[in-house]
Amino acid sequence: MTLTSKQGMTRRGFIAASAAATASLALTGCQPEATLDSTEAGADAGADGKAEGSGYVSPDVEFDPETEGSWIPAVCNANCGGFCENKVYVVDGVVIRQKTDDTGDDSLECPQLRSCPRGRAHRQDTFGVDRLKYPMKRKNWEPHTGGDKSLRGRDEWVRISWDEAFELVADEIKYNYETNGERSLLYGGLSSGWGSLAKSINAFGGGISMASTSSFGSCCFYQGQVMGISAQGIGESNDRTDFANADYIVLYGCNQVWASPGTYTYLFNEALEKGVQFLFVGPEFNPTAAHFNAKWIRVRPGTDTALLLAVAYEMFKLDEAEGKGSVVDWDFLAKYTVGIDGDAMPDDAKVDENFYDYLMGAYDDTPKTAEWASAITGTPVEDIRLYADVMRKSNNVMSLRSNAAFRTNDSDNLLQLYMTVSFMGGHIGKSGNCADAAYHGTVGSPINQPLFQVGAKGGDDALVYPNPVESVVNDDEQWQAILEGRFNNTGSITMGVITPEKQETCDIHVVVMENVSAVNTSLNASLAVESLRKVDFVVSTARSFTVQAQYSDIVLPVASEWEGNGIRNDATWFFNREALVLGTRVCENLYEAKTEQEIGYGFAKAMGLDADAMFPVSEDQQWYNMLAGTTMRHPETGEWVTMFTITDEDLKALNAEGKPQEGYMPLAEILEKGIFKMPRKAGDIFTYYGYQDFIKDPKANPRGSVSGKFEIYSQTKADMLNGNGRTKDFDWKPYPSYKVPVNGYEASFVDGDINGKKGEFPYQMFTPHYLRRSHTQYDNLPWLRTAFANPVFIAAADAKEKGIADGDWVRVYNEGGSVLRPASVSERLMPGVVALPHGPWLDIDDETGYDRAGCENMLTRPVGSGCGTAGYNTNLVNFEKWDGDMEADYQLPARVPSIDGE
Ligand SMILES: Nc1nc2c(c(=O)[nH]1)N[C@H]1C(S)=C(S)[C@@H](COP(=O)(O)OP(=O)(O)OC[C@H]3O[C@@H](n4cnc5c(=O)[nH]c(N)nc54)[C@H](O)[C@@H]3O)O[C@H]1N2
Ligand SMILES: Nc1nc2c(c(=O)[nH]1)N[C@H]1C(S)=C(S)[C@@H](COP(=O)(O)OP(=O)(O)OC[C@H]3O[C@@H](n4cnc5c(=O)[nH]c(N)nc54)[C@H](O)[C@@H]3O)O[C@H]1N2
Ligand code: SF4
Ligand SMILES: [Mo]
Question: Region labeled Disordered — which residues (predicted)?
Fold first, then answer.
């Protein structure tokens, strides 16, 4: 299969492209003396720091670490969960080399937090030709009416001053409040409400905000009260020093090798070396399964509930065959859970049904046997039995999952079931056993047990300026809310809330997109475009000419984290339990870009608000506050202690007010090194087994559920799901049962009959997170585009049937539209399944309507059943060979706005 870009690149092609892109490059402001050369020089990619590929400006500076610049720690704060160490070699404010963590002996006790290819290409992000240089307005935009709205996404641009930009945005917002009310504004996208504009908008009156189950899928509403596990079932894994004590590690739909690269995969290596056996459960034998030489338990996307029901069924059957208690840990179930069978019902039960009897077929005449499941899941019957055998109580089993299987329609019973299978074997709260997550930043780190706590910035923020409009629109109805003015407000599922059904209306005229790539990353990109072309005003903050910038009317250029104080976003993304990683300022703001706070301040003033009161703490002071307030657990005593010693000189250098303080280590040390790693050893004081307190003493440490125990019968769960008005024609049971998912495997057949004929869209699509990019971030970087293709993965048997060869262009399509990608033909995928890695930047061809970039969300259908899950991995498509002609994306010019007069 092809993963790397294989089409031979014509050097002339990229030189022409990059010349066009660089022609518009006007380096202003802080730009250094060092000559900034373009790729026209045509140097080779790699070690000499010059990019081969479209439009990257590479400084033509000889590398001489002895005399010239200095190494500075720099953050990489993409939303990938990595938080790896990056260091940059800076000459006169320009980064000419990068390296990664080279401290320590790189042992398992003290691993190096090495960055992935994306982090190492980061300088192309900050110094790329596609950086936005100044505020812009869309050429054919008119205040209040939107002007020619159909040109959004394909218009030219006009440079404007910051003053004008602030005035125009403030005027639009005020005008719409007066004319259409506060329900006319939508914070579009997943991270809505966190940006620099949101604070003033909230202070002024707020707007409808948006929620999504994006990362967690149907795990979203699993807070403590639902079945007594940790929020979303995350944060209570055993810590990594215990991995080697398992007999089996089940990687449930995980792909650390792509989706949590950095150090995380490495953390499992000791287990691999010590002979722990890995199982991988998913629709492809992915790079992670390959790395760990895992036994592949194949399962069709979105059918996991059927699979695990059969695993539970087969465990009971084994237990019966071998003698009660030989396989199932009945003592564990009795002590720590409720609802396994009719004898274990909780007090609040309203339904006279239970899990065991359901499995045996008491309510639907269908025992959930391996054979029953296999027909749905595609898993060989013997593999289901093997999985059940592995889960037996005499084995030590760690079950670690990502949320991929939960980003599927109607998977709302899956987390309860996943936990139940581990409860049945008693695999919780002891060495070698756990059931939790290992994805994003949570691999081998029980994040509920942090070893560092970053200090508060001060003068902040969302709590002081909450959004006065309480309405929240869920991802699946975001575009419908704009196009049809209606949605079901059931609270913020992002925050784990499900309130009862409440149908509301709205009249959206303004969309604000900050810190988010809503057009690319939300369900249904074609409706996103239609929606954005309907409203009167779209504003976004952006670093480069992102898709959301492209579809806006006014774009405000935001400084990258290398231009700020680095740590800015870390409170959100800081997940590495065992290391504190800091970045410091690498350079001044580039071009006319402003930091978030500078944008917030200017906008507040334009809104007529008291900007000084709203932003009382300078960014330098915030940075200091974070450092001064940072605490850590002392490596020997485990006590929480102040981390940094800060002197008067430090205070002066940091341009901040405060008092000198005593701490564990000098501040200067971390500012220079950028990293502190907690030394670890198996069995040390930080060793942790998930849920250990509850397991030790369940009465003294009850869980947050109604019963205080893990609930295999959760009335709360059923009531929430049945009350929110999203699911059609299905009664959610308090115990885990199977619901045929909307747009799942069954729906790929005519009338849903899996023994019948395939329907119009016979293939299942899933959308893995991809090594080349972090969601959309970094997908513009030429090095990464050159190194990794943007494929659709197709099973070899299916490709053969369709006459598609590796590298051919393929059109993948369904009711949502068509996207084009090069084929990567693979023996590692289940037939009937295609994979479109998540995150390319939408690029719709006006003539054909095809998306040339292959944005997978053109094909994801909003369903929002269950808790309102964004079912990215349950969509049906068809595909065919595409005979058109198109260059591979690394050959395309950088995306830069076409600016009037330039
Ligand atoms: N089909 C499909 N869709 C998915 C998923 C999937 O698996 N399949 N996964 C979902 C998941 S799990 C997630 S988390 C979402 C992610 O969805 P998004 O959050 O929309 O994705 P990003 O591409 O990370 O967008 C962040 C944007 O913010 C910009 N940015 C970064 N730092 C700053 C800053 O300091 N200030 C400002 N103003 N902007 C900044 C970045 O350049 C980028 O444009 O996608 C979801 N969408
Ligand atoms: N490089 C990179 N890293 C990232 C990100 C990124 O965009 N790029 N995004 C970050 C974020 S915010 C998140 S949320 C995580 C997401 O990371 P993950 O939660 O791991 O999600 P995916 O990459 O979508 O899927 C992982 C694997 O799940 C399997 N899978 C897909 N569908 C199903 C299914 O229905 N059932 C089962 N059993 N398996 C299935 C596939 O084999 C796939 O390889 O990654 C984080 N890390
Ligand atoms: S993109 Fe993520 S994994 Fe890669 S270097 Fe940055 S933080 Fe680490
Ligand atoms: Mo995510």
Answer: 39-63
541 lines ligand 1 (CB under 6 A): yes
pTM comes to: 0.94
What pLDDT is recorded for position 524? 95
Exposure of 37 by Cβ count < 10 A (0-12 exposed, 13-18 middle, 19+ buried)? middle
Pocket test for ligand 2, best of 256, 402, 764 (most atoms within 8 A of CB): 402
- With CA atoms as reference, report the closest residue to 177 among 203, 216, 152, 154: 203
Report d(CA 113, CA 443) in Å as an integer: 13
* 7 CA from centroid of ligand 2 (Å): 27
**Which pLDDT score, from 0 to 100, does residue 574 have?**
56
Closest ligand 2 atom to residue 284 Cα is: 42
Section 377-383 average pLDDT: 98
Residue with tokens 């509301």: 504
329 preceded by a cis bond (ω within 30 of 0): no
Looking at per-residue pLDDT, the higher value among 619 and 724 belongs to: 724
In the chain, % of residues over pLDDT 90: 76
Chain-centroid distance, C-alpha 576? 16
pLDDT band at 1 (very low <50, low <70, confident <90, very high): very low
Q: How far apart are CA 323 and CA 331, in angstroms?
A: 14
- Indicate whether 384 pLDDT > 50: yes
pLDDT digit string (tens) for 71-111? Answer: 999 988 788 888 788 999 998 888 988 999 998 888 888 88
Distance 216 CA to ligand 4 centre (A): 7
Q: Is the CB of 218 under 6 A from ligand 2?
A: no
Q: Greatest CA span in the chain, whole angstroms? A: 83
- Separation in Å, CA 558 to CA 133, 602, 703: 9, 13, 43
Provide the residue ranges of all domains of the chain, joining segments of one domain with +. Answer: 136-214+456-677, 222-451+689-723, 746-891
Q: Which residues contact 129 (CB under 8 A, 6 or more apart)?
A: 18, 21, 22, 24, 25, 38, 55, 56, 57, 894, 896
Mean pLDDT of 598-615: 94
64 CB-near residues (< 8 Å, 6+ apart)? none
Q: What is the per-residue pLDDT for 481?
A: 97
Output 415 or 79, whichever has higher pLDDT: 415
Q: Around ion ligand 4, which residues have CB less than 5 A away?
A: 215
Ligand 3 pocket, residues with Cβ under 6 angstroms: 76, 78, 80, 82-84, 115-116, 118-119, 261-262, 774
Q: Which CATH class is domain 136-214+456-677?
A: alpha beta
User: What tokens does 571 get?
Assistant: 């409170």
Whose C-alpha lies nearest to ligand 2, atom 9? Answer: 80
Best mutation site among 132, 478, 776, 877 for ligand 1 pocket (most ligand atoms within 8 Å of CB): 776
User: What does the alpha-carbon distance between residue 859 and residue 767 come to, in Å, rounded to a whole number?
Assistant: 10
Predicted local confidence at residue 94, as pLDDT: 86
Nearest ligand 2 atom to the CA of 407 is 35
Residue nearest to atom 2 of ligand 3 (CA): 82
Which of 187-196, 328-337, 528-537 has the least mean pLDDT? 187-196
Query: Is pLDDT of 21 > 60?
Result: no
Asked which of 141-150, 224-233, 621-630 is least confident by mean pLDDT, the reply is 621-630
CA separation, residue 661 to residues 404, 647, 667 (Å): 45, 7, 10
Topology classification of domain 222-451+689-723: Dimethylsulfoxide Reductase; domain 2 (3.40.228)
CA of 73 to the centre of ligand 1 (A): 24
CA distance readout (Å), 488 to 93, 212, 318, 501 = 50, 13, 45, 6
Q: Which atom of ligand 1 is nearest to the CA of 856?
A: 1
Q: Which atom of ligand 1 is nearest to the CA of 836?
A: 1
Determine the distance separating the centroid of ligand 2 and the alpha carbon of 768, expressed in angstroms.
Answer: 5
Per CATH, is 746-891 categorized as 3.30.430.20?
no
Best CA proximity match to 531, nearest among 149, 53, 94 = 149
